[in-house]
Amino acid sequence: MSKVAVVQASSVPFDTPATVAKAIRLIRECADQGAELAVFPEAFIGGYPKGADFGAVVGSRTPQGRKAYRRYVEAAVTLDDPLMAELGEAVREAGITVVTGVIERLGNTLYCTAVTFAADGSIAGHHRKLMPTGSERLIWGFGDGSTIGTVDTPVGRLGSVICWENYMPMLRQAMYAQGTEIYCAPTADDRPTWISSMIHIALEGRVHVLTACQAIRWDEFPDDYEREQRDRDTWAMRGGSAIIAPSGEVLAGPVFDEETILCADIDPGAKTDGHLDFDPAGHYARPDVFRLQVDTGAKNAVTLDPGTGH
Questions:
Q1: What is the mean pLDDT of residues 11-39?
Q2: Which of 126, 172, 224, 242 could pair with 254 in a Cys bridge, judged by C-beta atoms 3.0 to 4.6 Å apart?
Q3: pTM of the predicted model, to two decimals?
Q4: How does the average pLDDT of the chain come out, rounded?
């Protein structure tokens, strides 16, 4: 058996050093509880801009919206950022594997990324969200197939799929085909219906699912932050994090309207038990009828070719 944890907590909007300090404290708490793996929510480092419109309507953007975007960019991190190194050092000291959502800055574009830290503190893998949802497409770029791999860890092979990417059947199939054992689903979806999708994925892939969502109140955002509503004494995101076994049994959660750390003991062999009668990428597949081709190549907008030269 292995103990795993899901962290349901708020980031500190637009204060990334404070968010990293909070993440470090929470990582230590997970380790103190005996967890070997901890999963944090989508966009935990850098923040999820719930309710913001960045002054954008079809055919027009406002100067105020551009300034709001600048503030959001300034809260983002690069993968080699000193703050990420600080986080990695805390992971190394805790000796556990950590998956966390970050807003990644690459060049002049932001990506919603899930970063996996190995227990030695190094970045063992990262996944950029393939399909930002709705208005997220204004502020986040599209990932490509080069970051949909898995990471081998002491608790099992991890795969990360972010928020509504989990509604993409072909992406799920690609994760199952890579032997994903622990399916990490950082999300911003705090609806009570989210757990239904997570249970389905656990059963479909015969995987352990760890889903983490922030629990953050409107009054945690700055006073000048634009909101979809103004009642500051309510939740902007309510949580709903959970841990689910390959059998579909909910081992922990969902919990709403509070910050918490959910822990559960998981049985790595439960995945094998489940494959007796179902393997979506193996004996229950029909490759004579259905085939999925996945392009895992990086898609760069510009390739600088030095040419042959003379």
A1: 98
A2: 242
A3: 0.94
A4: 95
What pLDDT shows up at residue 18? 98
SS (H, E, C) the chain: CEEEEEEECCCCCCCHHHHHHHHHHHHHHHHHCCCCEEECCCCCECCCCCCCCCCEECCEECHHHHHHHHHHHHHCECCCCHHHHHHHHHHHHHCCEEEEEEEEEECCEEEEEEEEECCCCCEEEEEECCCCCCCHHHHCCCCCHHHCCCEEECCEEEEECCHHHHHCHHHHHHHHHCCCCEEEEEECCCCCCHHHHHHHHHHHHCCEEEEEECEEEHHHCCCCCCCCCCCCCCEEEEEEEEEECCCCCEEEEEEECCCEEEEEEECCCHHHHHCCCCCCCCCCCCCCCCCCCCCCCCCCCCCCCCCCCC
Q: Which sequence positions are flagged as catalytic?
A: 42, 129, 163
Range name among 16-25, 109-118, 294-303 with the lowest pLDDT average: 294-303
pLDDT bin (cut points 50, 70, 90) of residue 305 is: confident
Dihedral angle sign, alpha carbons of residues 43, 46, 51, 56: negative
Average pLDDT rounded to a whole number, residues 166-187: 97
pLDDT in the model for residue 230 = 57
Count other Cβ atoms within 10 Å, centred on residue 1: 9
Look up tokens 């002491």; give the residue: 154
Domain residues of the chain, as ranges?
A: 1-275
